[in-house]
Amino acid sequence: MSDADCLFCKIVAEEVPAEVVHVTERTVAFRDINPQAPTHVLVVPRDHYPNAAALAAGDPVASAELVSAAAAIATAEGHEDYRLVFNTGAGVGQTVFHTHLHLLAGRSMTWPPG
Ligand code: AMP
Ligand code: ZN
Question: Domain for residue 114, yes or no?
Fold first, then answer.
C-alpha cells in the first residue's frame, strides 16, 4: 500500500534518503529535515494512510505501534518528557499526507501550541 507520488512512501522504500533512527514491523522513524526541537523524529507507518484517523481505522495495530515506537525513541534519546503531535489537515499545518507522528523533545515547551 503505497502512493507513487508520496515523499514518505519513498523514504519507507529507501528511494529518498533519510536519517532513519528506528524501525519496526509496521513503522519507520527518521529525523525531521527541519527540526523544531533537539529531538524531532517522524514516526510513519510503512503503509500509506493520509492521516492518523485513517490509519487508526485501517490498521489499529500500526496506529498503536507508532506511539510505542515514539516512546522507545524518546527513552533511547534520554527524554522522560516529550510531545507527540499528529497534524490533520492543511488548516493546522499538515503538509505531507502520509500519516506521521511528530516526536518532539529536549527543550521546554509552551501550551497551547501555536
Ligand atoms: P506536517 O507539517 O505535520 O505535515 O509535517 C511534515 C514534516 O515533514 C515537517 O516537519 C517537515 O520538516 C518534514 N519533512 C519534509 N520533508 C522531509 C524529508 N525529506 N525528510 C524528513 N523530514 C521531512
Ligand atoms: Zn505515503
Answer: no
- CATH code assigned at 89: 3.30.428.10
Indicate whether residue 34 lines ligand 1 (CB < 6 A).
yes
Residue owning the nearest CA to atom 17 of ligand 1: 33
Write out pLDDT tens, residues 42-100. 999 999 999 999 999 999 999 999 999 999 999 999 999 999 999 999 999 999 999 99
- Give CA–CA dist 39/84, Å, rounded: 12
C-alpha cell of 7? 515523499
pTM of this prediction exceeds 0.90: yes
Residue span of the structural domain in which 56 resides = 7-105
